[in-house]
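hiii, so i know i said id send this last week but things got crazy w the move. better late than never?? heres the sequnce for the chain we talked about at the cafe, plus the structure i predicted for it. fair warning i was half asleep when i ran it
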Amino acid sequence: MSSEQGSTTLPSAVDAGFGPTGRPVTEFPEPRILESHGPARVIAMVNQKGGVGKTTSTINLGAALAEAGRRVLLVDFDPQGALSAGLGTNPHELDVTVYNVLMDRKVSIQDAIQHTAIENIDLLPANIDLSAAEVQLVNEVAREQVLDRALRKVSDDYDVILIDCQPSLGLLTVNALTAAHGVIIPLICEFFALRAVALLVETIEKVQDRLNPRLQIDGVLATMYDARTLHSREVIARLVEAFGDKVFETVIKRTIKFADATVAAEPITSYAANHSGADAYRSLARELISRGGAP
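okay and structure toks below
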């Protein structure tokens, strides 16, 4: 994949006035103050490839939206429980999780939701029990809509609900897509990550056709970007070629601070409030709101 192939112009790391996507740098406006809250817009963070920054982006985008005065519910929909752990919860010590909400009609979603140390953010946690739901839901009536039914009961309490999906396109992910209004696709800036996107888009289109006609792709988020490498810039160029304006102008650069914040069980917006990584997620929140992807 060389720079001579195709006619796409690769943005240089030093192109004045242009961002990594090759578009002029935009200063997104500060979000308006909400006079009331709810109903929530539900956004699924989806990519069947692991290690692309889904959980990191869910936590930090959620924190940036909360800073902007939005009430946010983060839904851990991955049996690994990384989102729950990243917010300071020990998934293995939980008695009530999203699994119980899905599988036991006697358990209300309010019983499982936890308040976090971060203002305006609540958590619907998960642990390894959730892996059993994939098998158990197969025999359920309207099995693709179980999460949707649960989230509707708390939709009026929040402005945004972000669902951190597991790295697969199985029944849990289909549940998340059925419950969602929009999809954000985090994508690491590596060539092999591009290959999986076509299958993901095909799955999204099937859910749109058969289960959830309101579903739309809010945007593709480039993560772990390194402006020093031609490879990262080529991947961004191919993304823009394939998705056009659906690629967020905001790009998340590679930095060890994200790992440090995860160890501290904090979003980067509080762990390193003045770091460029925190500023990037604040910019993403403003961009999402300006696009109509969040209230």
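btw The chain has one domain: 41-290. thought thatd interest u
miss u guys!!
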